[in-house]
Amino acid sequence: MAKPISIEVWNPNGKYRVISTKSMPGTRWIKLLTDQDCRVEICTENKTILSVDDILALIGDKCDGVIGQLTEDWGEVLFSALRRAGGTAFSNMAVGYNNVDVNAATKYGIGVGNTPGVLTETTAELAASLSLAASRRIVEADQFMRAGLYDGWLPHLFVGNLLKGQTVGVIGAGRIGSAYARMMIEGFKMNLIYYDLYQATRLEKFVTAYGQFLKANGEQPVTWKRAATMEDVLREADVISLHPVLDKTTYHLINKERLAIMKKEAILVNASRGPVIDEVALVEHLKVNPMFRVGLDVFEDEPYMKPGLADQKNAVVVPHIASASKWTREGMATLAALNVLGKIKGYPIWTDLNRVDVFLDENSPPPAACPSIVNAKQLGISASKL
Ligand SMILES: NC(=O)c1ccc[n+]([C@@H]2O[C@H](COP(=O)([O-])OP(=O)(O)OC[C@H]3O[C@@H](n4cnc5c(N)ncnc54)[C@H](O)[C@@H]3O)[C@@H](O)[C@H]2O)c1
Asked: pTM here?
């Protein structure tokens, strides 16, 4: 017999059984569920990534909803099991849901929640941090210092790139890409070039107005340009940050050929999803272009790095922590829990993803709505009038 999975139980007599495959930050999410008659079971297994079999064991014979993680493979097997257990609700604790087969979930009548909005600024701030760390060689310099190698100021020591007045390129100017662009424009007076399938009207208006403000104050105005092709961004920008969703159109968006058209001293940042970059090609490019630098939060085969990447001094690497601020992680847990609760209770779908903060106010009860269910339309969930 398979070894039972260890769990922590809240409100054991609750009517609805809701599982969280991981412990999540904060306690509000637990209270919101237990106050609404849910028995909450949190997996406490000492294992970073649960297998499909582990999750099947957690779902068991009766389960109304599951909060899962982006490291898990949510497809046919798990959704059919959840349905058999009487479940109708699933939420990723993430905005991206490339680990979820939404069609399979829809086939079994299961809603797929995600957590947009609450991680926008936090993720953009990490992308900005990686941009700075890579352009000013912070990690290399830190290692040098700790190794006791510093024996005095030198004109050539860790010379990097100045950002002010340079061009920042954004690929995928959605919520996070636009927030990142603003940080780099406001903070470092960079000019913007972006590529997206859609026009980023609000971002364009902001840059225009900010440019006018700078001009009125006797400073060089910033400018923006919407590129016709992604290659235009790659050729022109000094710092390029990737923020698209991961899907068929963005898999290996950055490959050998596209790396080759970038400036030799460009900075490339990825805080979207690992497979957006062909990591093998990137390692080769870093090897032959020592002044080309990269800041990576995500990797093609997480938790692994492709061979050779760890040896490259011109790469700054962090373990998928872009959304890791306390406020954001607690908010993500809350939104994921409310997606599951709302689907179980038959609540309508919230329609304004720019206003998810109403779900996060600790001093008032959240609206009776599902914050974000990506297959709401396919499942015929009505729109909230709140
Ligand atoms: N590293 C992390 O921890 C972390 C945290 C949050 C989000 N993310 C990733 O960031 C992604 C973006 O999040 P968001 O909230 O900004 O989503 P969003 O939907 O607001 O923005 C995504 C943008 O990508 C654009 N896009 C789609 N296909 C494209 C293509 N082929 N070329 C160019 N642009 C394309 C879309 O038009 C959209 O504007 C998520 O899907 C997720 O994978 C990562």
From this structure: 0.95
